[in-house]
Amino acid sequence: MTNNSFTTEAEELGKLRDEIDSVDQQIQQLVNQRAQCAQKVADVKEHFSKPGESVVFYRPEREAQVLRRVMERNQGPLPAEGVARLFREIMSQCLALEEPMKIAYLGPEGTFTQQAALKHFGHAVECQGQGSIEDVFREVEAGGANFGVVPVENSTEGVITHTLDSFVGSNLNICGEVALRIHHHFLLKEALLKKGAVANPTKVYSHAQSLAQCRQWLDANWPGIERIAVSSNAEAARRAQEEEGAAAIASEAAAELYNLNIATANIEDMPDNTTRFLIIGKQTTEISGDDKTSLLVASKNKPGALYHLLAPFHEEGVSLTRIETRPSKSGTWNYIFFIDLEGHQNEEKVAKAMALVQQQCTDFKCLGSYPKAVL
Asked: Which segments constitute the Chorismate mutase domain (predicted)?
């Protein structure tokens, strides 16, 4: 017996679509209302700025606090990180109304560093690819870009020494960090694919770090292929497109950009392969509530030197998250220590520990305090 109280599928879907249209209209109105507030914020900042004083529109600590609250109050069904990504883009568009930002990154277009820049700042920024990590630092120092994005460490291959070394002679601050899951793909152009089977490329291009991160896969699947390190994975994809018999290891974005096919996806040896990137700029960052601080310290090469550098952090209850050692240019067997710790330099216990450490150093520089990566 048919229940006549049931409506048709078309009628039910029609009601739901009308509801969605109504919700969409409300969302659009609220987003534009938020954008108007952002414009008013810019007006207030400009009105109260002192003559000759540059107005600071982008506040990393403020954005981190907003995104954390978004994730904390999320009740689903969308995942908290997904909702935060939506808000990141809304914030990016709103900030562009206050001040369109230029972001220097390790290029060319299609690199993982560009992906990290867009993940951190959203898509309403102008990304400027640079040829090297040193060029990113120079572009920000010269005022050609508001901020820069550089890789600093990978969970598989460790620290990127060029980035650490660039801080030695730079006055830029670390303003933020972003972690990006790295998926590497084996890329070929259409001519090397024969009815779904992979032909035999003679060489594979990629960045040295990426070749290292896929070493086991290459050993097992392409043991005789020539492995050639280039400046970036995007450059690898470009060469694979232009040269005969060439493959590349690069990202999906690079594959799309250079019209290559993904012959094998996700070839990284470690499934949780992640790279950490730093945001560098001229401004300092205030306390966000969940911060890191990075230091550069040097001491004389004598017994117990490292112990005396680290003891104040233990005494003040400050947790260290990373210590890296680099040779100092000031003399043979002298070293510089890069230290990451939990907390902000303006917090009492961190400030006290830093003051005690400074007494033990021949060189001391706070590279910046910044919010921990939210997304």
From this structure: 7-102
